[in-house]
Write a structure and sequence with these properties.
This protein is α+β, with helices and mostly antiparallel strands and 433 residues long. The chain contains 17 helices and 9 strands. Strands 1, 2, 3, 6, 7, 8 and 9 form a 7-stranded antiparallel β-sheet that branches. The protein has a two-stranded antiparallel sheet with strand order 4-5.
């Protein structure tokens, strides 16, 4: 009897050991353990070094010497938007007129979640938008191209458009300065719209913080004042309130991406009207930012100044853009030191300040921003931010730090293999890969 029980116990022990080994060597279990271990380490780092406490500063004559903007009603002292009036010889498409229906819901879209993957809202939302037009791939297919390094922190709108134009039979465009009426007009005409915005979500350190996010809008309901969104972070058919949409969309200059068949490009341009021309689109967006500078305050005014700078960058007014970013960062530093308010990740997603300061020869400011307010802001030891390394490398070349620049360009390529801007900079330094 005793011997029989002992044999059963040995058998059970062996089964437990075999099962344990199988679990330990299972890729799925290893991924689960690794994910949660990484989360725990990030949580500890954030407790000891909160990223929102890092101010936007520079060693030059930027934020420290600028007064806070004076809030007044718009007058002739308001910032000038260069070239607001479109040249007479340019004929722009006419917006398709006609009243919009009160309710529209587009169907035929495959939903993709971004969960269990790192920073996947870009690939997930693009996969959903493409599925509407019959594309049969997945978000992983897109991610392999636009974010070949799994923990890449940001996928830019231009990367989404480039994927569509080079990897599919479809076409796309991106514009800024959008409004609710335009979004509804596009949806009512049969075009789902990807918007880039900044909601407050719980991050991997379990804190509510601001972060960049894409959201696909596939319908709207005026009676409920909502968009119907396929939100890869929340759920399918998410009811996105109009008012909340505007507040979150503002933080990314009201950027939107439209996907469409190549033979329908003119139809989409007609729906955009005067925004069909890219330069005019940025002029109008700059004026919109100016209007908000004088009508908003606090965090929203910070985003208005930042957007103004971004629009001036695209209009190649780098001096005006640098001044606008200086004002924006001054306002940022005046915000309460609160992780649920300060958008400290903004330079993970936006590169406008690098352009402005670099082309104003404020190279040390570029280095400091890329280091202190982007790369060093990452708490998971995976600063996969190729754009920040690229701009820091360019600034280092400008100040004679060639070895440091080469290291930055190589790191850039480690986080995004084949990133052409970094390859070109290395080629210019005599290094050919």
């Amino acid at each position: 009897m005793f011997k029989s029980k002992r044999n059963i116990l040995i058998l059970i022990t062996c089964l437990i050991l075999i099962l344990g080994c199988a679990l330990v060597f299972s890729a799925r279990v290893q991924e689960w353990v690794g994910w949660h271990t990484a989360q725990a380490l990030v949580w500890l780092k954030v407790q000891f070094d909160p990223p929102e406490e890092v101010a936007f500063t520079s060693p030059g004559d930027s934020t420290q010497s600028l007064p806070l903007p004076v809030i007044t009603t718009p007058t002739s002292s308001a910032p000038d938007v260069p070239g607001t009036i479109q040249p007479e010889e340019t004929v722009l498409p006419t917006v398709t007129t006609g009243s919009l229906p009160d309710f529209v819901e587009l169907d035929g879209i495959t939903y993709f979640s971004q969960h269990n993957r790192w920073s996947y809202c870009g690939p997930a939302n693009l996969a959903m938008a493409l599925s509407y037009w019959g594309w049969e791939g997945t978000h992983d297919d897109i991610a392999h191209v636009v974010k070949p390094y799994p923990k890449d922190k940001s996928v830019m709108p231009y990367e989404l458009v480039d994927y569509i134009q080079t990897e599919t039979d479809l076409d796309a465009l991106t514009r800024v300065g959008g409004d609710l009426e335009l979004l509804k007009r596009l949806i009512a005409s049969g075009y789902p719209v990807i918007v880039e915005k900044g909601p407050y979500f719980r991050d991997i350190s379990y804190r509510i913080t601001w972060m960049g996010h894409y959201q696909l809008l596939t319908g709207y309901n005026d009676a409920k004042a909502i968009f119907i969104a396929q939100d890869s972070y929340i759920n399918a058919d998410y009811e996105q309130e109009y008012a909340a949409m505007v507040d979150e969309w503002r933080s990314f200059n009201y950027t939107y991406v439209v996907v469409f068949p190549k033979n329908e490009r003119n139809d989409v341009l007609n729906l955009l009207g005067e925004n069909s021309d890219e330069n005019q689109n940025y002029r109008l967006a700059a004026q919109k930012a100016v209007d908000e500078i004088y009508s908003l305050e606090g965090l929203n005014q910070f985003f208005a100044w930042f957007n103004y700078g971004t629009n001036l960058v695209y209009l190649r007014d780098y001096s005006g853009a640098a001044d606008a970013y200086d004002q924006a960062f001054t306002l940022y530093n005046e915000l309460p030191n609160d992780n649920t308010l300060r958008p400290y990740r903004i330079l993970w997603y936006e590169t406008g300040p690098y352009y402005a300061y670099y082309f104003m020869a404020r190279y040390q400011d570029v280095i400091d921003l890329a280091t202190n307010n982007s790369i060093d802001m990452v708490r998971d030891d995976e600063p996969a931010l190729e754009e920040s390394y690229y701009w820091r490398g360019r600034a280092k070349v400008a100040v004679g730090e060639q070895e440091g620049a080469i290291e930055d360009f190589m790191t850039c390529l480690m986080y995004h293999a084949g990133f052409n801007p970094c390859i070109e900079e290395l080629n210019a330094l005599g290094i050919y890969l």
